[in-house]
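Researcher: Batch entry, complex prediction.
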Amino acid sequence: MLRLNAKTIFRWSFSLLAMVLLAPPSVPAADIGNCLLCHKYPGLSRIDEDGRLRLLFINEATMNSSVHARVKCEDCHTDIKKIPHDPAKKVDCLTQCHIVEPTSEQKFSHKEVARFLSKSVHGLKDRDQKPKKHPEDLPSCKDCHDNPLYRPLSIFKQKVHPGISKAALGRCRVCHKKDEFIYRFYNHVTTRLHKIRSPKNIAEICARCHDDAQLAARHGLSTKAVYSYGETFHGKAALFLDERVPDCLDCHVNPGRSVHQMLSYKDSNAITNENNKGLICANMDCHPGASPKLAEYRVHPEFDLERNPYQFYAQVFFLGMTGSVLLPIMGLLFLDLLRRMFPNASLRRRK
Amino acid sequence: MATQPLIKIKDGKKYFYRFSAIQRAQHITIASSVIVLALTGMPLKFPDAPWAPSLYALFGGIKMAPIIHKTAGTILFLLFVFHLFYIARSIYTDLVVPLRRKNQLSAVAVLKGILTHPIMPSFRDVRDFAAYLKYLLFLSDKPPEGAKFTWKEKFDYWAPFWGIVVMVGSGFIMWHKELVTRYVSGEIINFALIAHSDEALLATLFLFIWHFYNVHFSTSVFPMGTVFITGYLPEHLMVEEHYDYYRQVMKEAGLEDEILPPPGSRREPVAAEMPAAAPSAASRESLVGGEEA
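Model: Structure tokens for the complex:
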């Protein structure tokens, strides 16, 4: 029998208060399968068969700000049919989900993206349709993509800054009545008006493979492609979160094409092909009117005698000059300080 | 020629004229522009360094810092152009005009005048450097008795000539890459970046180690020499660094009996060793200014 004394009341009150304060603040709204009933708890996790800790918490606010916010959990996790469920299989991004693409009125899937990818430089087959070596190295959806968040843009009086324009929303509300739809549509469209990732973020993703020396060697690629990009002004500015500088995709993807359609520089249609690369820098958004010679700039210079002999010697010259100036003067300063400590000491005396 | 007295006496201490107001203004301009260039350029040279983002943010980050850098670079370039005109004007007024008055004007005479100017490197610098090295290595107790401009000062003066040409040239190529690559291959930008970046590091370290040691951290001047502000060098530094020139100025001012012994010496004043004709009262007045203690 429960005895209600002061100590018990205090303990219960404290426990209730703690539950209220520690419970996630959001309430599942669009979660039709009621998955957040369990997955709303930040500590929800398990150790999988491989001994790895798997965090199973879903932050509803973050999910609602992502491009997949309207996709129901079970649209991707198709093997989950009951609650509580068995360990879920990995999500197949080519699964047809229940979102309807408005222009075709077909259910949406990423199959078209996969088709693009299969014909790109990252596809599993080469230009002669022969299987490439080391297919395990080639990227699939989740090697590059997570669940990206919307990055809405406010455009007002020619001024662009991150966020949602209230003035624009006011115009949307004239015809559209549901704010949820307005926000979602606004987010979708304005996020697509620019890049969903910063140049730094994109370079980091490419670096996962292209700065892996062993992987690059297996595929005959130049090593440390992203590292060398980081040695240029573009790469350095990207590190300082400048979003105006080009990232890997801006130069390696043909204009008007998706990143999933990237071609090898050996392909005569590729923008990076020797015959076409003059157009890369001179586009309207970068260096309008620039000569094709500008693209002869080596974006991936490496300190390598065989690949860049002249640049190698130029760098050696300046390094040599720096050392030959600084080391002697530092020696002189040391000796000067020492001499000042013993001003009257000398092996020879003035006559 | 400077209108300032060569020696100023204040509170009983002698100060020796070194730099005119226009020279000091040029020094302050180059110093401030180079400091700004270093502070806004080094974060790009070392973007991964932990201090780089904070330092860059101090100058407005990636949107503002490059603008400040280019502005400081333009100021440095304009100063360089001004200095070239200043040199040309000095050659004309201090060399060409006197030669013309003497009816001795010729290209050879002008060239000779330029090559023997106190700021030009000379064999004496090699001799003084060797003497300095011997002194540092305790092989001599006699430091070199420096001329008007020592080998250190000539190094400080001529090194930026090379540095500014490299930095401004490479900076221009990177800034106006669209214009430059109309005529030459874009690969020149790679070389410009190497030159700009590595020369900047060399110049910055040279200035902040060598120059700052000589004008700030050396025990003779710590915490700071004031000649770059006042234009006048205190007597003890004049003796330490420019003893030959000091003796010459003191003689010209008729102050032989007050000449201090050479650096590293414990002897009495050396007036007796250096007889010189005393200047007239009028010339002494023009050489010595300020209050005599």
